[in-house]
Automatic annotation (TrEMBL):
InterPro entries: DNA_primase_core_N_sf, DNA_primase_DnaB-bd, DNA_primase_DnaG, DNA_primase_Znf_CHC2, DnaG_bac, DNAG_N, DnaG_primase, TOPRIM_DnaG_bac. NCBIfam families: dnaG. Binds 1 zinc ion per monomer. This is DNA primase. Residues 435-465 are annotated as: Disordered. Its cofactor is Zn(2+). Contains an N-terminal zinc-binding domain, a central core domain that contains the primase activity, and a C-terminal DnaB-binding domain. It comes from the Bacteria.
Length: 685
């Protein structure tokens, strides 16, 4: 059922951020805040900051940020509702949940029932492994030969299924579980009955005569099983797995992620392998930041699951060259998600399971350290080796590698990989960059052809970097718009939302920072009254009229203020600090946190530093003027570019030139007036 809004607010009020975080890390008081080494990434010097006044946390190392609920979600890897229930239990708050529709109740009850019966099956299989004669002689012997000890068997919930046709089905019936539920959970199959022969439908176990590998979701619930046959029966597949169910979607889960998530956070890398036993053997050897795709190609959902705990993936391959080459094609999506991916090949004939058994944990770690190569370098070397001296194959290899590099959203990383690839291929770096720009243009043109999507999350995805067709010199910029290039970007700006970065174009970048400064004033001081009856929010919204912001995140925040102000209210800072949209929440937290704080000695020596609140009227006035200058400068640049593409050979095009000139003068006038107020010298004509 759904937790009511009233109870949700009670939980938020009760959940003290210092107490909640203190359950997981050791906090030390520093000034008015608390610090610790971040639990989400490995670090030696503490960069994790907890603000008890704002009830938020922020890591200046990895960027993790949020409130108490977000912290529990991330540290435990659970959903929003589960985090609320966790905190309710901690603070002894009785959870009264709102009544759902009959359809919602039925669906929730079915899901709960599936979890219950799957948990029953796991315990049943493990009991057979440890207690039953057949389980001990066949299943337990197999695991012992693999080198698995009892703590490992218990940690992963390993088990054994008897060769009987309906052992689990009968035991489940004794406990009151109906066979239809077993079928929905993927534990049983059925054979239709024959009414004429007076035979009822018969249910029988899906897994028979196999060792069992339970599959857990991130919060540790059993959601499915993998099963390996141990006999030499060639008519049976070596492995069978649970089918897709309401609680199990193979493309969205990784085997071992529950056991590995904390180690992945600490090590800041996820080792990705292929099989169940690879995961278990490495885990037992002390290499616990490992999960498996269970023989399937890596999916976008699995990549996003890893990204919850680290931005780094190292894939351990034991396949042949052809298998690796085929797998490489699917790894571009890792780059698209903004993760760093590396690869390691093991010696011939070895897999992670056998190799760690052979060389031990230290030997395995040493090999990984020496053999790790980033994805682009690995792919370049492999494709060049395959191409040899064939010019056509080399051209195909270059095109494929350039395509992969352009999947990387970070322009600095792209530049590094273009240079490294050029060195490996012994060719001109600029040629690769030019080819990459073509790919980016085509991709952006293709994206522009698609209808606009209304999904909120899609609005903040970083767009491919647009290659610049027209370049302006620094002198032209300073003379035409009065912009000092070295002063166009503030010295210190807060981090922005995780799926957005400032543009590289100078004019758009300047506008970006002015828009950012504007919404910062709204979020932090929107409710403050400049004079009786005149709030800062009212003043700012009145001054900018109906313009829209270029940056979609900032425009969303601006529209929230417009809508709420139209209803007679002004959203507070706390409203944004606990906002349901993670990008808005993180951006707001970035605005409210700082790596530095004023020394207490300043007050002792009567050194007074004016606060933003004391200078708010002056700050707001200047922010509006700077925003207008940046906005008009961007428009003027766009109009100049537009004019350069009009030849003026026809009456229609001549009319277009006149209209562009009219608009240019309009924005030039705004720019000049704002510059005059600020005391900025803008050259005349």
């Amino acid at each position: 059922m759904r937790i009511s809004n009233e109870i949700t607010e009670r939980i938020k009020q009760a959940a003290d951020i210092v107490e909640v975080v203190g359950d997981f890390v050791s906090l030390k008081k520093r000034g008015s805040n608390y610090t610790a080494c971040c639990p989400f990434h490995n670090e030696k010097s503490p960069s994790f900051n907890v603000n008890p006044v704002r009830q938020i946390y922020k890591c200046f190392g990895c960027g993790a940020a949020g409130d108490s609920i977000k912290f529990v979600m991330d540290i435990e890897g659970i959903s929003y509702g589960e985090a609320l229930r966790h905190l309710a239990q901690k603070y002894n708050i009785e959870v009264e949940e709102e009544q759902q529709t009959p359809e919602e109740v039925l669906r929730q009850n079915e899901r709960d029932s599936l979890y219950i019966v799957l948990n029953f099956a796991q315990k049943y299989y493990q009991n057979l492994l440890m207690e039953h004669e057949e389980g001990q002689s066949i299943g337990l012997s197999y695991f012992r030969n693999r080198g698995f000890n009892d703590p490992t068997i218990k940690s992963f919930g390993l088990g054994y299924s008897l060769t009987d046709w309906d052992g689990l089905t009968k035991e489940a019936a004794k406990k009151g579980y109906n066979p239809e539920l077993l079928e929905k959970a993927g534990l049983a199959l059925h054979k239709e009955g024959d009414p004429q022969a007076n035979r009822a439908t018969r249910y029988y176990d899906r897994f028979r005569g196999r060792v069992i590998f339970p599959i857990h979701n991130v919060s540790g619930k059993v959601i499915a099983f993998g099963a390996r046959i141990l006999s030499a029966d060639k008519s049976q597949p070596k492995y069978i797995n649970s089918p897709e169910t309401d609680v199990y979607h193979k493309s969205k889960i990784l085997y071992g992620i529950y056991q590995a998530k904390n180690a992945i956070r600490l090590e800041d890398v996820c080792y990705l392998v292929e099989g169940y036993t690879d995961v278990i053997s490495l885990h037992q050897a002390g290499i616990q930041n490992v999960a498996a795709s269970s023989g399937t190609s890596l999916t976008e959902e699995q990549i996003k699951l890893i990204a919850r705990f680290t931005n780094n993936i190292t894939i351990l391959y034991d396949g042949d060259a052809a298998g690796i080459k085929a797998a490489l094609r699917g790894l571009d999506m890792v780059l698209e998600e903004g993760l760093n991916v590396s690869l390691v090949t093991l010696p011939d004939g070895e897999d992670p399971d056998s190799y760690v058994y052979k060389v031990g944990a230290e030997g395995f770690k040493k090999h990984v350290q020496q053999a790790t190569k980033d994805f682009i370098t690995f792919k370049t070397e492999m494709l060049l080796k395959d191409a040899g001296d064939n010019p056509f194959k080399r051209a195909e290899a270059i095109n494929e590698i350039v395509t992969s590099i352009t999947k990387i959203s970070d322009p600095i990383k792209r530049q590094i990989f273009f240079k490294r690839t050029a060195d490996l291929m012994k060719m001109d770096e600029q040629t690769l960059i030019s080819e990459g720009n073509k790919h980016l243009r085509r991709r952006e043109d293709k994206a522009a052809e698609k209808p606009l999507q209304s999904k909120p999350k899609d609005r903040f995805r970083e767009r491919p970097q647009e290659p610049a067709d027209i370049h302006f010199s620094d002198n032209f910029i300073e003379e035409e718009f009065g912009i000092l290039v070295e002063d166009s970007v503030p010295n210190a700006v807060p981090d922005v939302a995780s799926r957005h970065e400032p543009p590289t174009d100078l004019f758009k970048q300047r506008l970006y920072f002015q828009e950012q400064a504007f919404v910062k004033l709204l979020i932090l001081h929107g409710q403050t009254e400049l004079e009786t009856g005149i709030s800062l929010c009212r003043y700012l919204l009145h001054e900018i009229g109906e313009i829209s912001f270029e940056n979609q995140l900032f425009d969303l925040v601006l529209n929230i203020f417009r809508q709420r102000f139209g209803l007679g209210e002004i959203p507070s800072t706390d409203y944004f600090l606990s906002h349901i949209d993670p990008d808005i929440q993180r951006f707001s937290i970035d605005l409210c946190t700082s790596k530095h704080h004023l020394s207490e000695n300043w007050e002792k020596h009567d050194i007074v530093v004016p606060t933003d609140e004391e200078l708010l009227h002056e700050i707001a006035f200047k922010k509006i003027l700077r925003l207008k200058m940046a906005y008009s400068a961007t428009k003027m640049k766009d109009l100049l570019n537009q004019m350069g593409k009009i030849t003026g050979n026809s009456d229609e095009e001549f009319a277009q030139i006149m209209e562009v000139q009219r608009q240019y003068k309009f924005y030039k006038n705004i720019n000049d007036l704002a510059a005059k107020e600020l005391g900025t010298v803008v050259p005349g004509y």
